[in-house]
Amino acid sequence: MEYATIMFLVNAGMIIHALRTGRFWPWFWVILMLPGIGALAYVVMELAPEFMGSRQGQRAQSQIACAVDPKRRYRELADNLAILDTIANRVALARECLELEKYHEALTILSSVVAHPQGDEPTFFIDKARAEAGIRKYAEALATLGELKRKWPAYQSSEAQLLYACLLEALGRDREAETEYRTLAPSYPGVEPRVRLARALLRRGQREEAKTLAQNVVTELRRSPRHVVRAQSEWLNAAEQIARS
Questions:
Q1: pLDDT band at 54 (very low <50, low <70, confident <90, very high)
Q2: What angle, rounded to 10 degrees, do the helices at 207-222 and 233-244 form?
């Protein structure tokens, strides 16, 4: 029997099994789009854990479902909010909207959250500012961070500091943005502030300082563990471009 025929039968058998056992989604597409590999993944992640009485298969299925259908979690969170309207459910949906770049929807939700008596939390204001920045309402986002500072003057957040600096830059307040990037760079858990600073310096014609800063970032990341390089890949690529300029 030819290899192609065997693969067809194996894939068909796995798809039929998935249909009969209530696992049709997302395995139908995984098996169909990845002949052989998809069927093997189905066996390893669904059938083998089932025989061993493990829950690992369920977690793996959830991960694959999210990869195949990125908006699955969004729909689940929207359903949760429709069933039970709580601050926690609103915030969970809003944050998923931010991840999906649904900034208008995120802003609508977060505006209702911070206006609620139970929505008086610093992180909610940061999320709201992120949503405003996402739709280029930079001045409004800056005002939201200002309100956060007034409400919680002792509150410290590297995420809020970086967002503040980015907003200053977006509004053309480059010198202030550079100062913020320089202040944040030593303590920020990542290289983004340094790369953004290098970009800003390059725009102002300070090429040598920008290239030196970018090259230092490149050297540091090239010596870092792989998982760090993967997490910082966007900024590594940006730093390499600046260093070569």
A1: very low
A2: 140
- Average pLDDT, integer, range 192-196: 97
pTM score? 0.71
Q: Output Rg (C-alpha) for the chain, integer angstroms.
A: 24
Could you tell me the residue ranges of all domains in the chain?
3-59, 69-152, 156-245
Cα–Cα distance between 190 and 96 in angstroms, integer?
Answer: 22
Task: Give Cα separations from 188 to 110, 182, 194, 212 (angstroms).
Answer: 26, 10, 9, 19
- Say if CB 159 and CB 187 are below 8 A apart: no
Taken in order 122, 115, 84, 82, is the CA torsion positive or negative? negative
Q: What is the pLDDT of residues 133-164, one digit of tens each?
A: 999 999 999 999 999 999 999 999 999 999 99
CB 39 within 8 A of CB 31: yes
CATH of the structural domain 156-245, one choice from 3.40.50.1100, 3.40.50.720, 1.20.1510.10, 1.25.40.10: 1.25.40.10
Distances (CA, A) of 83 to 19, 62, 183: 28, 22, 45
Q: Which of 168, 105, 161 is nearest to 138 (CA)?
A: 168
pLDDT of residue 27: 63
* Token pair of 225 as six digits: 């563990």
